[in-house]
Amino acid sequence: MIMSLAFTVLSSSVSNEISRILPSSQIGSGMGLFQLLQFFSGAFSVAMAASALEWQKGLPLSTAYSNIYWGLSVAAIIAIVSAFAYHRSSQSGRPTQMADAADA
């Protein structure tokens, strides 16, 4: 349930960010590309999880799933660090944009 809520919040916020950043003539293409990447990543992640289970078939099932969850934890930490880095870069660029708008 928490994963579903997190996915919904993330999808809507990324869609909002895409529509905010892209010029109005490219919003449709950007949203379409976002959806395409979302579908591909869903299929790719299922294939990778199945491959990871297959590679660990000699291990007990609990150990194999534990390894997969550790891998997902590492991916989540990378995503969180990337989000903070993006937020920091967008915040540091904002005063310059406001100063440029004031000069214009």
Task: Explain what this protein looks like in three dimensions.
The model has no long low-confidence stretch (mean pLDDT 83). With 104 residues, the chain is mainly alpha-helical. The protein has three helices and no strands. The chain has helices at residues 2-21, 27-55, 61-103. The longest helix is centred in the C-terminal third of the chain and has 43 residues, at 61-103.
Helix and strand topology:
Elements: H1 2-21, H2 27-55, H3 61-103
Write a concise keyword list for the protein shown above.
104 residues, mainly alpha, 88% helix
How many individual β-strands?
A: 0
Give the helix level as a range of percent. Answer: over 70%
Radius of gyration: 19 Å
* Principal-axes shape call: elongated
Largest sheet composition: none
Integer average pLDDT: 83
Distance between the termini: 48 Å
N-to-C SSE string, H for helix and E for strand: HHH
- Spans with pLDDT under 50 lasting ≥5 residues? none
Strand coverage percent: under 5%
Q: Give the structural class.
A: mainly alpha
The number of helical segments is 3
How would you concisely characterize the structure shown here?
The chain is an all-alpha fold and 104 residues long. The radius of gyration is 19 Å and the shape is elongated.
